[in-house]
Amino acid sequence: MIKGIHHVGIAVKSIDEALKIYRDTFGLLVVKTATVEEQGVKAALLQVGNSNLEFLEPLDETGTVARFIERRGEGMHHICFEVDNIDTEPQALAAKGVELLDKEPRPSPISGRICFLHPRSGLGVLIELAQPD
Question: How far apart are the first and last CA of the chain?
Fold first, then answer.
């Protein structure tokens, strides 16, 4: 069951530049930062009330976030829903016709355990499911 929005992912060229705006100007608190080699990004999670913003900076030009920025520019990359049970929710959605990008949940240093759904299943929006630690 979806509990709420965990975070909105935003692709940026520079997390440092994003922090100047969102942390320094708007006063948002940095909750976590991590380099996620397997996803090819540096990430920062900032708290906004009961949800978060996740900034994703590509580590190089070959990753999916780098290609996203090249095609579309900086901006919203995905939406992440917090779920009760990351082990059962993706399969329950797949049974309803949702196309999974991840067949099994995987660990994330920022969001706990995660699973991505194909944008075709979300009207062109990349959807992530997360069960925080």
Answer: 17
The pTM for the full model equals 0.95
State how far the alpha carbon of 67 is from the alpha carbons of 37, 41, 55, 70, 74, in Å: 16, 12, 15, 5, 11
Fold entry, domain 2-131: 2,3-Dihydroxybiphenyl 1,2-Dioxygenase; domain 1 (3.10.180)
Query: How does pLDDT run along the chain (133 residues), one tens digit per residue?
Result: 899 999 999 999 999 999 999 999 999 999 999 999 989 999 999 999 999 999 999 999 999 999 999 999 999 999 999 999 999 999 999 999 999 999 899 999 999 999 999 999 999 999 999 999 8
Q: CB of 41 within 8 A of CB of 65?
A: yes
Angle, CA 31 vertex, CA 26 and CA 37 arms, to 5°? 115
Q: Where are the domains of the chain?
A: 2-131
Q: What angle do CA 40, 27, 59 make, to 5 degrees?
A: 10
Q: CA 54 to CA 101: how far, in whole Å?
A: 20
